[in-house]
Design brief:
- The complex is a heterodimer of chains A (96) and B (133).
- By secondary structure, chain A is of the alpha/beta class.
- Chain A has a single domain, classed as Hypothetical Protein Ychn, Chain: A, CATH 3.40.1260.
- Chain A is 34% helix and 21% strand.
- Chain A contains four helices and five strands; from the N terminus they run βαβαβαβαβ.
- In chain A, α2 links the parallel β2 and β3.
- The longest helix of chain A has 10 residues.
- Chain A is globular, with a radius of gyration of 12 Å.
- Chain A starts with a strand and ends with a strand.
- Chain B is of the alpha/beta class and 133 residues long.
- Chain B has one domain: Hypothetical Protein Ychn, Chain: A (3-Layer(aba) Sandwich).
- Chain B has a five-stranded parallel β-sheet, sandwiched between helices.
- The longest helix of chain B is centred in the N-terminal third of the chain and has 14 residues.
- The two termini of chain B are 22 Å apart.
- At the A-B interface, α4 and β5 of A face α1 and β5 of B.
Chain lengths: 96, 133
């Protein structure tokens, strides 16, 4: 049960793509920093994110959405205190 | 586990300027401490060692991340460990290393301390959750 945090845009690196390939059933994905854009516009892995979102396993850091003046179309927004609780809830965290 | 006090160790591998990860790490630490949790220590690695330079001097209307780290560490009494080999390669030097290497200056900010990967291993063993940024 891992909390994966991806911080780079899918238009910039393969971090999101590689992370999705290794994501296990019980894992959660949290998008932070430039990666929040992955919840706002379509890209190669958008459908996979949509599926995760439907399962309630996709989170987006709201402070980073606000900093970029974008809104998420999929995923659940979370605050820094929520981020802390997500880390506690999962057995470990993995940064991509 | 949500209700009880959790011990976090933090790994920062981004510079204070040019990447966002050090700022994200700082905000995570501040939120965790506000929620009543504990930070066992923060380990600065790779580009993250630049957070420990006392020469970082951003414009006055920007935040000074090294100052913020130092203040938080003093207020909540946790160590700021900096990887020594990553530091020396990037020009972050404490008085002892400066003397050993015959350098005229040092620039490690207090209360950051130079340490090694062994310290990271210890930090990860001493906490409930290790978080990388």
């Amino acid at each position: 049960m891992i909390l994966h945090t991806v911080k780079s845009s899918p238009f910039q690196t393969l971090a999101l793509h590689n992370c999705l390939n290794l994501l296990a059933e019980a894992d959660t994905l949290l998008l932070i920093e430039d990666a929040v854009i992955a919840c706002c516009v379509e890209h190669n892995n958008y459908q996979r994110l949509q599926k995760l979102s439907q399962q309630g396993r996709l989170m987006v850091l709201s402070a980073d959405l606000e900093a970029r003046a974008v809104n998420n179309n999929i995923g659940k927004t979370c605050s820094y205190p929520d981020f802390v609780n997500l880390v506690i809830k999962h057995k470990s965290q993995l940064s991509w | 586990m949500d209700e009880q006090k959790v011990k976090f160790s933090i790994v920062v591998s981004g510079a204070p300027y040019g990447s966002q990860s050090a700022s994200t790490a700082y905000q995570f630490c501040a939120s965790a401490l506000l929620a009543g949790h504990e930070i066992s220590g923060v380990f600065f690695y790779q580009e993250g060692v630049l957070n420990a330079s006392q020469l970082v001097s951003p414009a006055t209307d920007e935040i000074n991340l090294p100052d913020f780290w130092a203040a938080l560490a003093v207020q909540y009494n946790f160590p700021l460990e900096v990887c020594v080999s990553a530091s020396l390669r990037r020009g972050v030097v404490d008085p002892q290393e400066a003397q050993q290497l015959s350098l005229e200056q040092f620039n490690l900010k207090a209360p950051f301390v130079l340490s090694g990967l062994g310290q990271l291993a210890e930090l990860s063993a001493r906490c409930d959750r290790l978080v990388q940024f």
